[in-house]
Design brief:
The structure is a single chain. With 152 residues, this protein is α+β, with helices and mostly antiparallel strands. It folds into two domains: 28 residues; 94 residues, Immunoglobulins (Immunoglobulin-like, Sandwich), CATH 2.60.40. The radius of gyration is 32 Å and the shape is rod-shaped.
Length: 152
């Protein structure tokens, strides 16, 4: 290889290296997933929260009692609400599991809807909870229906 050929090879290699350096400095940072942006002030990426458990124990039906205790388990609970034909019963979730006494109207079918409000929690820049879970079935999948059979 003569001197002229060696000089041209060095010039070509330097041009390629400089071209790659300019490409990387000016354009390579924009290459990525479609729609992805890298802007200052982006919010913190929070890990996905584990869903809170929410279960209601089976109810007694039929019954001749005019009250019944509804037992509810709720992970990180704030409040429990039971809605039925005899009214709306809301209590703070301050014990685990929570027992809520509801009244029953005589000779009536009571269809229960149980709601559990999950407490909002801050961990660093991440917020979790603050939502409400709802069910009309017990932990076994049976409907939350109480048939009150007499007006004792």
């Amino acid at each position: 290889m003569n001197n002229s050929t060696a000089r041209w090879l060095i010039i070509i290699v330097l041009a390629l290296v400089l071209g790659l350096l300019v490409w990387w400095l000016l354009g390579a940072r924009d290459v990525g997933a479609p729609g992805a942006t890298d802007t200052p002030g982006d919010t913190t990426q929070c890990p996905q929260a584990t869903p809170e458990f929410f279960t209601v124990e089976p109810v007694t039906s039929p019954t001749d009692a005019l009250t019944q205790i509804i037992t509810v388990d709720l992970g990180n609970g704030e409040a429990i609400t039971v809605t039925t034909e005899s009214g709306v019963f809301t209590v703070p979730f301050d014990t685990f599991p929570k027992e809520i006494e509801i009244t029953l109207l005589p000779n009536m079918t009571h269809n229960l809807t149980v709601e559990g409000k999950v407490r909002e929690v801050q961990q660093g820049d991440c917020t979790y909870g603050g939502y409400t879970l709802s069910t009309t079935t017990d932990r076994n999948g049976a409907p939350l229906v109480i048939e009150q059979t007499s007006g004792q």
